[in-house]
Amino acid sequence: MRAARMSDGQRTGKRENDVTGATIWLTGLPSAGKTTIARALAERLESAGRATEVLDGDEIREFLSAGLGFDRADRDTNVQRIGFVAELLASHGVLVLVPVIAPYADSREAVRKRHAAAGTPFVEVHVATPVEVCSERDVKGLYARQAAGEISGLTGVDDPYEVPVAPDLRIESQHQSVQESAAALYALLAERGML
Question: How many whole angstroms from its chain centre is CA 124?
Answer without folding.
Answer: 8
